[in-house]
Specification:
Elements: H1 2-44, E1 47-48, E2 53-55, E3 59-61, E4 67-70, E5 75-77, E6 92-95, E7 101-104, E8 109-111, E9 114-117, E10 120-123, E11 128-129, E12 134-136, E13 152-154, E14 159-160, E15 165-166, E16 171-172, E17 177-178, E18 183-184, E19 192-195, E20 200-204
Parallel strand pairs: 1-4, 2-5, 3-6, 4-7, 5-8, 6-9, 7-10, 8-11, 9-12, 10-13, 11-14, 12-15, 13-16, 14-17, 15-18, 17-19
Antiparallel strand pairs: 19-20
């Protein structure tokens, strides 16, 4: 019994040091990433609020005469170890045409997300976007003459599950939850739980 307790305490102490070292490494990595990202944003003309955190360096591509605006206290996890559910690639935000807009509110979080706007994508405050999700307002065809982009709006306090895809012309109402691996083709009203392929309302949130 004593040997078991000693072994357990030794393992716990070792685990504590591993966690401590991991946290210190992540803090350093976050600070380093944040410094690099701010330099990149300055030269790319990306607007960013105070208090934003970056785990790894995201990829931002801003088309000429378009706009990417990020609010305060947002987090972007681009390193594959920064979210233990699994981040398949770094965060990607891209405007694709002149006049396109990506606007993100305050206190929102993203892990390995891909956001592509040919017209307008508006994401509100306190939005959590699960790992490897896609948000786009266009069909991504090289010839867009017959496939016009349509704005995407995600209102405040929305939770988007891992591996979800939100396509053009969709509005997700405030306080709603989108289940993992959903394909969102139509508007989702406020205060509901929705999921599936295609995404449909599953339950009201009181």
């Amino acid at each position: 019994m004593k040997k078991f307790l000693f072994t357990r305490l030794t393992e716990d102490k070792g685990s504590w040091w591993i966690r401590k070292l991991s946290n210190l490494t992540m803090s350093f990595f976050k600070g380093y990433s944040g410094f690099i990202v701010k330099i990149i944003f300055f030269f790319k003309g990306v607007e960013i609020g105070t208090g934003c955190k970056f785990f790894g360096v995201p990829h931002f591509s801003r088309y000429r005469f378009s706009r990417i605006q990020i609010g305060k206290n947002c987090s972007f996890r681009s390193d594959h170890t920064s979210n233990l559910i699994g981040v398949n690639h770094k965060c990607i935000l891209a405007t694709l045409e002149e006049g396109a807009i990506i606007k993100i509110g305050n206190n929102s979080g993203f892990s390995g997300v891909s956001i592509g706007a040919a017209k307008e994508i508006i994401i509100g405050n306190n939005v959590l976007c699960g790992a490897n999700s896609i948000i786009t307002d266009t069909d991504w065809h090289s010839d867009r003459s017959n496939t016009m982009p349509k704005a995407v709006i995600i209102e405040d306090n929305v939770w988007i599950g891992v591996n979800t895809t939100i396509l053009k012309g969709v509005r997700v109402g405030k306080n709603s939850i989108i289940g993992a691996s959903s394909l969102v083709l139509k508007d989702i009203p406020p205060n509901v739980i929705a999921g599936g392929n295609p995404c449909r309302i599953l339950k009201q949130i009181n």
